[in-house]
């Protein structure tokens, strides 16, 4: 029976990487050879009987599915400049060394793909949850950690940590804007704090360069109750708006910022 073709995952019966482990005839190691289709009929039948009662081998076989078609695709590649076609250099059965390398590579790639899928799912969950940031606080009795909601949004948190801030209040609209800026390799990260604006409105923050070019940094909607209204009846309406975005301009290339409504009305201008 073919041995030494396991997936390299350190599961039951894995002989590689462990001094004094089971020999190459260990039945669990046959899963790689079975996935490659290089067992004869008697060997395949014997392994299938083992597979019916071994969850670990079943999982490894699922991870290694598709190895045989990959070898077939390699065999079909054409030759170049007198070099024999890959199919001509592969025997009917791959050598143990080649088979082991192929099995290990596929296992590693599939494990990496599963890890990437997990992190993408976690990131998507964080985006769906949204809202206030969640921080961990230690309770007083057992040192255990409990989630506590923080009122700081990502935009507000960035605003608080930026050192360069410029502000302006429009004499006509009475809208107040504070712009915080941070230089980045790709341009300028900008955060807007907006007060005394009532809706419903749709607005944009525009960065205007010294060369006259205009770039939209970010856009948002203002509900009818507004943002940063000093005498508002609700806390929601009293709180200012924090939004952030980026511009390709470097900070020293920006002349000013404008808060514009979608219908072309300028609410406030902030000179840099």
From TrEMBL:
Residues 1-24 are annotated as: Disordered. Keywords: Membrane, Transcription, Transcription regulation, Transmembrane, Transmembrane helix. InterPro entries: Anti_sigma_zinc_sf, Znf_put. Residues 1-14 have a biased composition (Gly residues). Residues 26-58 form the Putative zinc-finger domain. The chain crosses the membrane at residues 118-138. The keyword 4Fe-4S does not apply. This is Membrane protein. It comes from Streptomyces avermitilis (strain ATCC 31267 / DSM 46492 / JCM 5070 / NBRC 14893 / NCIMB 12804 / NRRL 8165 / MA-4680).
